[in-house]
Design goal:
single chain; 125 residues; mainly beta; seven-stranded mixed β-sheet; 49% strand
Length: 125
């Protein structure tokens, strides 16, 4: 499986961006697609995750109500719509996929098997 993330950029606080992650190769319905982010000098942290086969997305508290994760199975693509962006959202955003995850493990980096290259999001104040 290869993951290609895109859509990052520079935006003012309060603005919006939409990130995309295209998956190529095997993407069984049981797999989970997640987004993580890493700010300079900080550890990589969970943002959101969704299962290919259906069900609701799961979000970190820090982005709940501002970010929306969706998927287009026909295009093997997940989208992270980010609104009301804050300077603290500035980070490199990574998409990842994994199999065998349950909701309680969505936020665990070690559970994901494949990672995209990352896309930079910068929010200016």
């Amino acid at each position: 499986v290869q993951l290609q993330a895109s859509g990052g950029g520079l935006v003012q606080a309060g603005g919006s961006l939409r990130l995309s992650c295209v998956a190529s190769g095997r993407t069984p319905g049981s797999w989970v697609m997640g987004w993580f982010r890493q700010a300079p000098g900080k550890e990589r942290e969970f943002v959101a995750a969704i299962r290919w086969s259906g069900g609701s997305a799961y979000y970190a508290d820090s982005v709940k109500g501002r970010f929306t994760l969706s998927r287009d199975n026909a295009k093997s693509t997940v989208y992270l719509q980010m609104s009301s962006l804050k300077p603290e959202d500035t980070a490199v955003y990574y998409c990842a996929s994994g199999v065998g995850l349950i909701q309680s493990t969505y936020g665990s980096l070690r559970e994901y098997d494949y990672w995209g290259q990352g896309t930079q999001v910068t929010v200016s104040s």
